[in-house]
Amino acid sequence: MKSTTRLVLAAVLGLSTLTGCSAGQGGQGDGQGGGEPAAVSAPAAVGTFAVITHAGSGDAFWDVVKNGAEAAGKRYGVTVSYQGDGDPARQSQLVDQAVSQKVDGIVVSMANPDALKEAIGKAVTAKIPVVTINSGGDRSREFGAITHVGQSEDVAGRGAGEKLKAEGVTKLLCVIHEAGNVGLDQRCKGATEGMGGPVERLQVDVGNLVDATSKIKARLQSDTSLNGVLTLNPAVAVAARDAIADSGSKARLGTFDLSADVVTAIKDGEVLFAVDQQQYLQGWLPITFLVLYRDNLNTVGGGLPVNTGPGFVTKDNAEQVAKLAESGTR
User: Fold this and answer.
1) Beta strand 311-314 with 273-276: parallel, antiparallel or unpaired?
2) 257, 309 in Cβ contact below 8 A?
3) What pLDDT score was predicted for residue 24?
4) Could you tell me how far CA 47 lies from the centroid of its own chain?
5) Is the peptide bond before 310 cis (omega within 30 degrees of 0)?
6) Which of 20, 112, 169, 265 makes an SS bond possible with 228, Cβ 3.0 to 4.6 Å?
7) d(CA 207, CA 67)
């Protein structure tokens, strides 16, 4: 077995030590060693892997994905290049560039699968292995990717809707922050099923959070029967928290995804819960899988997605993940 493969297998076995326990599945480990693999010096960088997402710089969620991918690159001694662009056409061009550079593997999120189909097809034709992440999991196998890493968005949405219903929410505002993102549409659909009641959608721009706050506030003021808000992004969750306070609404707030600010808001009772898809793993695991594929032709998932969620962070377990969120791994 190649030395790099041994390193990868050891790291996978020790993954819980690196990333912490999943929210809602018990406390953190005691750090007493036990079966933890001995420290191994990373080899000189061999191989280049491109991570191309549908988000630009400054998005707290995707910063954690980037952290995971870059940490995996250091662990396995490979070069990881991270780029993102919210415009599907430009994201497709970034995939084309990676193919022309003959990288050893590509990790790509598919918020708009149809826009990426041709570019991913070129990668597969060039025998560059592709792992899709986060969005578009139902199209991943069709496009020729070796696996998908993420969560089932409709299942996560149903869980969020059920939790809000249990908290007395009877009419929900589902806030979408990226136009054309199929995963966000699935989340709102799932929430509608889980709620079993009226769910209204509101489009905002994640790049303009001041305007997002204003739009949410205006909607809550114009329809006082809205007594619940579900956001699909941690930065928008903070904007919604402020909108609820400014409007004088009593709406209950839930969100998707974590940030340090969201964890603090959960601890303070301002946000009921965050649906946690453990986005650090959406960076770490694809690099792991691509190195294993390169060195040992291993594939993971058997044609099914590798799920990193959903879990739920609530007031009961928020303290456990607070420091991890601050360090950029949750």
Assistant:
1) antiparallel
2) no
3) 37
4) 25
5) yes
6) 169
7) 21
Question: Which residue, 59, 104, 33, is CA-closest to 257?
Answer: 59
From residue 190, alpha-carbon distances to 24, 138, 154, 230, 276 in Å are 21, 15, 4, 12, 16
CA–CA separation, 279 vs 11, rounded Å? 18
List the single range of 30-44, 51-65, 136-150, 243-257 with lowest mean pLDDT: 30-44
- Four-residue CA torsion sign, 36, 286, 51, 53: negative
| CA atoms of 217 and 204, how far apart (whole Å) | 12
* C-alpha to C-alpha distance for 208 and 3, rounded to whole angstroms: 47
Query: 159 with 269: CB under 8 angstroms?
Result: no
pTM: 0.76
Q: φ and ψ at 120, to 5 degrees?
A: -65, -35
For the sheet containing 172-176, what is the strand order?
199-203, 172-176, 228-231, 252-256, 273-276, 311-314
pLDDT score of 6: 46
In angstroms, the CA 144 to CA 122 distance is 10
Q: Where are the alpha helices (DSSP H) in 80-205?
A: 88-100, 113-125, 137-143, 153-166, 182-195
What pLDDT, in 10s, does the model give residues 80-98? Answer: 999 999 899 999 999 999 9
Query: What gap in Å lies between CA 69 and CA 285, rounded to an integer?
Result: 8
Q: Residue 51 contacts by C-beta under 8 Å, 6 or more apart in sequence?
A: 65, 66, 69, 80, 81, 82, 83, 106, 107, 108, 283, 286, 287
Computed over every residue of the chain, the mean pLDDT equals 87
Express each pLDDT in 150-197 by its tens digit: 999 999 999 999 999 999 999 999 999 988 888 899 999 999 999 999
Q: Is the dihedral of CA 40, 46, 51, 57 positive or negative?
A: positive
Answer for the pair 105, 76: CB distance below 8 angstroms, yes or no: no
Q: pLDDT per residue over 290-318, tens digit each?
A: 999 999 999 999 889 999 999 999 999 99
| Residues whose CB is less than 8 angstroms from the CB of residue 210 and which lie 6 or more positions away in sequence, other chains included | 239
